[in-house]
Amino acid sequence: MIAVIGGGPAGMMAAYSLAQNGVEVDLIEQNEKLGKKLFITGKGRCNVTNATDIENFFENISRNNKFLYSALYTFTNETLMDLLESTGCKLKVERGDRVFPQSDKSSDIIKAFKKLIDNDFVHINLNSKVTGLIINDNVCKGVIVNGQNKFYDAVILCTGGFSYQSTGSDG
Fold it and tell me: What totals of helices (H) and strands (E) does the chain contain, helices first?
């Protein structure tokens, strides 16, 4: 079993990817719901991605854009759009090739992510605060969550940065 810490888009996508490969996942989120920061993005509309050619992404990355080549070519903006639409979440492209849910509601993107991880492999743990990692011989073996030690085969951190503290972001 693998622990994914953080129930935002990165955490939900990590859980989805693992589950697609038959791996059992504990998705651990400190908030009362998944995607809390995602809910407020794009003034509540959620600018999901950009529909431009993938090469244009690299032209707009100011530093070390080669670092992202593998990631952006492995899982493209088009792949993301197709994946979200496969859940029934219709998308639209606006000025500047910005992609939004057709409904203009970020909650529809969150619902799409939830559909992707709604399976027997992903166990969602809300209101669960991770306060530490369990390190043994320089290897992370688990987490301290809600005051209890939980051990895993691997731990993936998807906690985001220190923005929007009202959503639980604490860096």
Answer: 6, 10
What's the chain's length in residues?
171
pTM of the model: 0.87
Question: Which residues neighbour 74 within 8 Å (Cβ) at sequence distance 6 or greater?
Answer: none
Place of tokens 């220190």: 162
Contact 133, 139 (CB under 8 A): no
**Residue pLDDT, tens place only, 35-54:** 988 888 878 889 999 999 88
For CA atoms 55, 78, 101, 68, the dihedral sign is negative
Q: What is the dihedral of CA 160, 61, 107, 41, to 10 degrees?
A: 80
Q: Percent of the chain scored above 70 by pLDDT?
A: 93
Phi, psi of 98 (to 5 degrees): -75, 140
Token pair in block for residue 117: 């991880």
Which conformational region is residue 46 in: left (phi greater than 0), alpha (psi within -120 to 50 degrees), or beta? left
- Look at strands 49-50 and 139-145 and give their pairing: unpaired
Q: Is the dihedral of CA 162, 165, 5, 66 positive or negative?
A: negative
84-99 in b/e form (b: 16+ CB < 10 A) is beebebebeeeeeebb
